[in-house]
């Protein structure tokens, strides 16, 4: 989800300015409708919706004009694929509280990737996390709520801070157990807050300690979503397009 999609119109579909084009994505359980913006007479641009599962969906390009019936201009299949970011988000979500798995993730820290790779990883994994269907009881600290906060252990928050993942840290802060994780020491006595300070991650440290700290720049800050029952409407300020998602 949240990738830019470009639609090339054929010669016969290049019509007057009062025609509005939109895309309809029909999945097995969810349907999305996105508005588009015209780049030029032959090209449209929109944002791909975040889908609830990896599957091939039908996408229809529709044209609407006041006083005329809606026309289906073209139909095509569109595939939501399970990429590395999705796999990583699923792995991290399932290993919340699993000490063996969380200690394994510390191997990633031994080969520090370049800053550009970290930024890419941060954006993609945080976005994939937003689209995961997390169980209602999911918690950053894991399923075992009997563990006291004084018990030294690794947490997902330690993982995100250790790699300097700003957007993933922000996402985890908004989830159940996110704030509680900030005061938990690992076996080396480090909290996520002290880790950020020790590694010189100034922005990350501010995110964890300042009241009213704002979300790091990402697609999610360029958009606003309103939920209502089985429907949600998302406005992407960057492109000025809207996305309506409805459960079938």
TrEMBL record:
GO terms assigned for molecular function: MAP-kinase scaffold activity
InterPro entries hit by this protein: Ankyrin_rpt-contain_sf, Rho_GEF
GO cellular component, one term: actin cytoskeleton
Gene3D superfamilies xref list: Ankyrin repeat-containing domain
GO biological process: adrenergic receptor signaling pathway; positive regulation of canonical NF-kappaB signal transduction; regulation of Rho protein signal transduction
Name of the protein in question: AKP13 protein
Provenance organism: Panurus biarmicus (Bearded tit)
Name of the coding gene: Akap13_0
């Amino acid at each position: 989800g949240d990738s830019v999609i470009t639609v090339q119109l054929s010669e016969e579909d290049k019509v007057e300015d009062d025609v509005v084009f939109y895309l309809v994505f029909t999945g097995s359980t969810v349907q999305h409708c996105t508005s588009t913006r015209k780049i030029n007479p032959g090209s449209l641009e929109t944002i791909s919706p975040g889908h609830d599962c990896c599957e091939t969906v039908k996408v229809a390009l529709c044209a609407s004009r006041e006083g005329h019936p809606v026309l289906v201009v073209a139909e095509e299949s569109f595939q939501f694929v399970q990429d590395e970011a999705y796999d990583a988000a699923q792995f991290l979500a399932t290993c919340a509280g699993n000490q063996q798995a969380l200690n394994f993730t510390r191997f990633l820290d031994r080969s520090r990737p370049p800053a550009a790779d970290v930024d890419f990883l941060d954006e993609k994994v945080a976005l994939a996390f937003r689209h995961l269907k997390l169980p209602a009881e999911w918690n950053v600290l894991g399923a075992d709520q009997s563990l006291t906060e004084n018990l030294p252990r690794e947490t997902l928050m330690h993982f995100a801070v250790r790699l300097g993942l700003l957007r993933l840290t922000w996402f985890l802060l908004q989830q159940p157990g996110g704030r509680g994780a900030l005061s938990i020491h690992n076996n080396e006595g480090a909290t996520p807050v002290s880790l950020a300070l020790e590694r010189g991650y100034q922005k990350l440290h501010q995110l964890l300690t300042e009241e009213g700290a704002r979300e790091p720049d990402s697609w999610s800050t360029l958009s606003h979503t309103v939920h209502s029952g089985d429907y949600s409407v998302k406005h992407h300020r960057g492109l000025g397009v809207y996305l309506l998602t409805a459960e079938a």
